[in-house]
Amino acid sequence: MTAPVVVTDTSGRVLWYYQLHETDLELAPSQVGPDGDIYLLLEAPRTYSVHDRSASGVREVDLAGDTLHELRGPQINAELAAAGADFSVAGFSHDLLPLPNGHLVLLAEIYKTFTGPTCCDGVRTTLIGLGIVDLDAQWHVDWFWNGFDHLDPNRIVNGFGPYPPRLDPRQRPAVHRRP
Predict the structure, then answer these.
(1) Is residue 106 domain-resident?
(2) Where are the alpha helices (DSSP H) in the chain?
(3) Strand partners for 124
């Protein structure tokens, strides 16, 4: 069983908590929405392959702990494909933002394969990037943004390299930094 989401007062007294009952998910950061509902990111457990996080999703619960909305990766990916997106969501990353107009903005992890980025000496390499998905008030995809369409995949900073890293450290590519 995963740790619950807990809300306390400034003295540390528990005011509210939410415990997942599913054994196949972990809770990631959560937010209180403008309507007082709690928005939870659901992540596949660490035992899943990083590239198979289809259990990941997002859930809205009220203060009684009742689920009001829930979407999983495959549902969001089907809507993204129908809307013409050139990416699919592999998981969700770090945060979400409920908006006053009822929309919900998700920061998504996406993957793209490149041949020959500067990090990888001409080798076909999959890089992890970020996308943004805006769900409307009925939790349908309203808008999306693909970071790979705007950010240079050759500009890898702070020693980050391809994902997942190669298992043999001798095969790791040199990281090229711009002056």
Answers:
(1) yes
(2) 73-82
(3) 115
pLDDT value at residue 51: 53
Instruction: Give the residue-averaged pLDDT of 33-53.
Output: 72
Task: Compute the half-sphere exposure of residue 9: CA atoms within 13 Å on the CB side of its CA.
Answer: 3
Cβ atoms of 66 and 60 closer than 8 Å: no
Q: What is the pTM of this model?
A: 0.75
For residue 143, give its domain range: 5-171
Residue pair 88/78 in contact (Cβ under 8 Å)? The answer is no
Whether 99 is covered by a domain: the verdict is yes
Identify whether 68 is part of a domain: yes
* Structural domain contains residue 18: yes
Total structural domains within the chain:
1
Sequential DSSP letters for 89-153:
--EEEEEEEE-TTS-EEEEEEEEEEEES-GGGTT-EEEEEEEEEEEE-TTS-EEEEEEGGGTS-T
